[in-house]
C-alpha cells in the first residue's frame, strides 16, 4: 500500500516537474517572439505579409497551449489577430462597404478575427488576476475599470500594448456592428482602455492613439457626444506629428472626408498618395544605385495598408463625390 502511494507521488512529481520545465523553457521563447513582433512592422511586401500572418498566429497558439498564461505570447498573439482583422480583412472590406454590400465575407472575417483577439485580450487581463467578466462587470462604470487596470498593470511596453490592442479589438467590434445596441454599449469601455494605454505612452504604435481619438470624435455627431470639427483638427495635428505614418492621412479620408463628403480634403490626400505610393513601390526594388542595406522603417506595414485603402477609395471617387 505504501509502495503504491509513493509510486503515485513519484509520478505526480515527474509530471509536475515536466510542466514546470516546459513553462520555464517557454518564457525566453515568448520574450523573443514578443520582441520580434515589432520587426513585422518593417515588412513592405503585401503578399508576404498576408500569407505569413496566419502561420505566425498558429505558431503562437501552439506555444501558448503549452504555457497558457505567458504574457509575452498572449500580447504577441493579440497583436497578430488585430493585424489580421485590421490590416487584411478590414482593408478588403472597405471595397464591399463602399459598394454597399451588406453580406460581406471580409466583414465576417474581420469580426471573427477581432472576436478571437478579444478572447486573448480577456485572458491577458486574467493573467493579472482580474475576473473573466471584468469588462462586462464595468460596462456601466468604465472609470472604475480604468482604476482597476491602473492598479494591476505596470507601465512597461508589453502591458501597455496588451491593454491598447484589447481596446482596439473591442472598438473594432463596435464599429463593425453599429446596428447592435448591446455591442455599442461597450464603446465607453473600449475608450477607457485606450485612455489608460495612451496616458502611459501617447506614442505607442506610432500614432495609434492619435488615429483613435481623431476617429472617435469624427465618427459621431455632436448630439451623440462627438465633434467632427474637433476630429478634423486632431487628424491634422496627427498628420503633422506622424508625417511618416501614412495611415494617419488615410484615416483622415476614410473617417472624416468621406462621411463629410469633403472633396477638397480627398483631392489633397489623393495627390499625396499618388506621389508617396509610387515612391514606396519603387523603394522595394534595386535599380542599380550603390548597394547598401536599407534602414529599417517601422511604418512600412502602416503605409502599405494606407496605400492599399486609398487605391480602393479612389476607385469609388465618382460615386462618392
Strand content: under 5%
> In which range does the helix fraction lie?
over 70%
- Please provide the ordered H/E string of secondary-structure elements: HHHHHHHHHHHHHHH
Main pleated-sheet profile: none
Overall strand count: 0
Helix/strand-derived category reads mainly alpha
Secondary structure tally, helices: 15
Uncertain segments of ≥5 residues (pLDDT<50)? Answer: 1-17
Alpha-carbon distance between the two ends: 85 Å
**Cα-based radius of gyration, to the nearest Å:** 22 Å
Output mean pLDDT. 92
Overall spatial form: globular
Structure explained in plain terms:
The chain is an all-alpha fold and 321 residues long. The chain is 74% helix and 0% strand. The protein is built from 15 helices and no strands. The protein has helices at residues 2-37, 46-64, 71-98, 105-126, 134-137, 142-152, 157-175, 181-184, 187-200, 208-218, 228-241, 247-260, 263-282, 300-315, 317-320. Helix 3 runs parallel beside helix 7, helix 4 (105-126) packs antiparallel against helix 7 and helix 6 (142-152) runs parallel beside helix 9 (187-200). The protein is globular. The protein starts with a helix and ends with a helix. The relative contact order is 0.09.
Amino acid at each position: 500500500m505504501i509502495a503504491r502511494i509513493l509510486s503515485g507521488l513519484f509520478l505526480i512529481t515527474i509530471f509536475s516537474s515536466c510542466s514546470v520545465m516546459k513553462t520555464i523553457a517557454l518564457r525566453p521563447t515568448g520574450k523573443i517572439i514578443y520582441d520580434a513582433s515589432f520587426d513585422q512592422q518593417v515588412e513592405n511586401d503585401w503578399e508576404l505579409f498576408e500569407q505569413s500572418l496566419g502561420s505566425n498566429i498558429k505558431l503562437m497558439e501552439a506555444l501558448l497551449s503549452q504555457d497558457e498564461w505567458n504574457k509575452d505570447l498572449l500580447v504577441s498573439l493579440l497583436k497578430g489577430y488585430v493585424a489580421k482583422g485590421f490590416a487584411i480583412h478590414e482593408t478588403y472590406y472597405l471595397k464591399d462597404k463602399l459598394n454597399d454590400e451588406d453580406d460581406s465575407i471580409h466583414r465576417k472575417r474581420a469580426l471573427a478575427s477581432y472576436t478571437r483577439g478579444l478572447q486573448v485580450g480577456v485572458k491577458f487581463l486574467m493573467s493579472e488576476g482580474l475576473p473573466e467578466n471584468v469588462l462586462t462587470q464595468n460596462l456601466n462604470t468604465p472609470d472604475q475599470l480604468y482604476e482597476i487596470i491602473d492598479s494591476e498593470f505596470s507601465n512597461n511596453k508589453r502591458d501597455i500594448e496588451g491593454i491598447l490592442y484589447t481596446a482596439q479589438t473591442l472598438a473594432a467590434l463596435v464599429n463593425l456592428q453599429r446596428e447592435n445596441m448591446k455591442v455599442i454599449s461597450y464603446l465607453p469601455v473600449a475608450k477607457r482602455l485606450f485612455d489608460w494605454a495612451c496616458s502611459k505612452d501617447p506614442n505607442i504604435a506610432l500614432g495609434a492613439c492619435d488615429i483613435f481619438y481623431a476617429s472617435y470624435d469624427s465618427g459621431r455627431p455632436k448630439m451623440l457626444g462627438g465633434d467632427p470639427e474637433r476630429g478634423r483638427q486632431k487628424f491634422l495635428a496627427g498628420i503633422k506629428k506622424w508625417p511618416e505614418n501614412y495611415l494617419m492621412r488615410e484615416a483622415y479620408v476614410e473617417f472624416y472626408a468621406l462621411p463629410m463628403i469633403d472633396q477638397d480634403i480627398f483631392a489633397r490626400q489623393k495627390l499625396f498618395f499618388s506621389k508617396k505610393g509610387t515612391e514606396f513601390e519603387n523603394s522595394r526594388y534595386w535599380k542599380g544605385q550603390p548597394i547598401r542595406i536599407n534602414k529599417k522603417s517601422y511604418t512600412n506595414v502602416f503605409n502599405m495598408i494606407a496605400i492599399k485603402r486609398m487605391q480602393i477609395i479612389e476607385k469609388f471617387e465618382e460615386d462618392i463625390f
